[in-house]
Amino acid sequence: MLPAEIIFGLTGVGLFTLGLRATLLHGSLLARILAINVCGAGVFLMFVSIAYQGAAAMPVPDPVPHALVLTGIVVAVSATALALALGRRLRESADE
Amino acid sequence: MIDFIAIVLIVTGIGFFAVGSIGLLRLPDLHSRLHALTKADNLGLGLVTLGTALLAGSLATAIKLLLIWLLVLAASAASANLIARHALERGDER
Amino acid sequence: MNALLWTLLDLLLAAMLLGLGWAAVATRDLKRGVALFIAFGLLLALAWARLRAPDLALAEAAIGAGLAGALLLAALRDEPRHEKLAAAHSRAGLWTLNLLSVLLAVVVAWALLCALEMGEGLRLAGAVTDHIGQSGVSNPVTAVLLNFRAYDTLLELAVILSAVLGVLALGPARRGYGLPGPVLGGLIRWLVPLLIVTAGYLLWVGAHAPGGAFQAGATLAAAAVLLRLGGVDRAGLPAAAVSRWLLAAGLLVFLGVGLSLAGLGYGFLQYPAGLAGGLILVIESAATLSIAVALALAYVGGWSRSGSTQPDSTQGGSH
Questions:
Q1: If C54 and its partner were Cys, which of C16, C34, C210, C316 is the partner (CB 3.0–4.6 Å)?
Q2: A22: nearest CA in chain C?
Q3: Per the CB < 8 Å rule, is B89 touching C183?
Q4: Is residue C3 part of a domain?
Q5: Cβ density class C148-164: b for 16+ within 10 Å, e for less
Q6: Is the pLDDT confidence value at C309 over 50?
């Protein structure tokens, strides 16, 4: 059987690449921000898959990557908010 | 015996979910799709919740599951209402 | 049989994640893309639960799917309706990009498989398990965040603060929403108190079970988002002067505790035995309020314009 960490780890690789590709491809800023978020989700998934490895034998999976990803999720949403605010300002100055 | 009842409840619930999803994909306009989705999924989730509550083994967990179901009911009713009202106002009936 | 079933479920979840992720970034319609992204976030929360990371599942459902989705939807409202999604690319450029993407995927996948191959190489899990008794909490993720790697969390609060200061510096709030109809209004009226109670519970329970400052802060921020959608332009935030202090409170209390401990000779953020649990709760309470105010302000998009409390009646609060 395929272990879960390999399935989800490779899913993370896939999400990372397709997010990155879409970030480079899209013209609209909002679509780029969305794609970057998918890209980041892929990175988180790789981290947590590595933490999960061998978790069957342990009481809990490795909590250190979990803590890193938790902070990562919050930082990602703050960065998204900042990027969206920058985009709004850009459009406003372009309209003037 | 309890296991058997729980499994029957969960499988029936999944059946309602499946019907709701088919309705979402197949029905012609927005209002009928919402109708299929909210009714069937709320009942389906109720049955799944009941089944898992039987399997939960503790009253506290069962009550938590019931609360979750009530929250989802309220949220799905409200969002279905918002989507339908928005569609009516905009005249967008796809 | 059981292992086969798990593998099938894993493959199903992985395929749905990839499919939704692909659909969210590949669609020509941004509104559809954002809706798919929210669904993607909810499935990702399911994946965290599967990988036995319940703290992440809570955070992802509240932040990754909920707040990020709300932010994107709010931004979508200002977006010109027919903006071209894909920039013009030549056929050769597109193929180069595709080729490079595949190459990158292969390299990263290879690196990941090598890392998995190494297995129990450099793991800190053992160190966490050995010292959790002295950390003052029994949830290992909280122990790492607030005790063993408290530096990281301190700096992370600083990152959130600077991101929100950036948002605040870029201009006033977005336009608000109209008054809600009776259904949404009624839902908001009993959901907001429930969210506040849940946030308090998550903060408290984080010491020994999944939960903590981030999840609690995000839940409070969700209440603010709901209030704003219900036509409350200030989203339940206190006056600007108070909000500023709350915004900085997490970082200030964290730094204050750390520096006081250093002054008393314990070393920066080295909690004395016996006091760790209490100090962590103090820091987490302040951090919860800061994170909530930060995320709520990020959603509102800046300070509310003074004197413009007129709701935008055309929007009907239904976005």
A1: C210
A2: C25
A3: no
A4: no
A5: bbbeebbebbeebbebb
A6: no
C301: left (phi over 0), alpha (psi -120 to 50) or beta: left
How many domains would you assign to chain A?
Answer: 1
With CA atoms as reference, the chain A residue closest to C54 would be: A66
Closest CA to A15 of C39, C105, C132: C105
Cα C197 from Cα C150, distance rounded (Å): 26
Position C119 in a domain: no
C124: in domain? no
Q: Quick one: what percent of chain C has pLDDT higher than 70?
A: 91
Q: What is the distance in angstroms between the Cα of C179 and the nearest Cα belonging to chain A?
A: 24
Closest CA to C44 of C66, C13, C67, C69: C13
CATH number assigned to the domain comprising residue A47: 1.10.287.3510
Rg (chain B; Cα; Å): 16
Q: Does A42 have pLDDT greater than 80? A: yes
Tell me how many helices (H) and strands (E) chain B has.
3, 0
At least 3 CB pairs under 8 A between chains B and A: no
Query: What are the tokens at C125?
Result: 């899990």
What ipTM was assigned to the predicted interfaces of this complex? 0.94
The CA-based angle C253-C254-C259, given to 5 degrees, is: 95
* Look-up of token digits 């927005």: B30
pTM to 2 decimals?
A: 0.89
Whether C312 is in a domain gets the answer yes
Q: Residue C256: give the domain boundaries.
A: 137-319
The count of domains in chain C is: 1
CA distance B24 to chain C (A): 15
The reported pLDDT for the residue numbered C305 is 64
Query: Does A83 score more than 70 pLDDT?
Result: yes
Q: Chain-centre distance of CA C98, in angstroms? A: 31
A40 touches chain C (CB under 8 A): no
**If you ran DSSP here, which 8-state letter would residue C133 be given?**
G
Q: Do C171 and A67 touch (CB under 8 A)?
A: no
Each residue of C103-131: pLDDT tens digit?
A: 999 999 999 998 888 766 567 777 788 88
CB contacts of C316 in chain B (<8 Å) are 85-86, 89
The reply to whether A37 touches chain C by the CB within 8 Å rule is yes
Residue C206: φ, ψ to 5°? -60, -20
Q: In the A/C pair of chains, how many CB contacts fall below 8 A?
A: 268
C313 touches chain B (CB under 8 A): no
- Return the pLDDT at C268: 85
Chains that touch B (3 or more CB pairs under 8 A): C
The DSSP bridge partners found for residue C118 are none
